[in-house]
Amino acid sequence: MGARAGRLLRRFNVESRAHKEISRSKPEPAPRHETYSPGPVVSEEIHSKDDPLLFRLKQVYVESKDPLKQTAVVPVLKKVERRPLRHSFPGDHLGIGEITDVPVGKVSIVEALKVLNDHKRSPQTWTLEKIAQDYSLQLKDTKALVEFFIPFEVKIIPPKSDRKQIKST
Question: What is the mean pLDDT of the chain?
Answer without folding.
Answer: 81
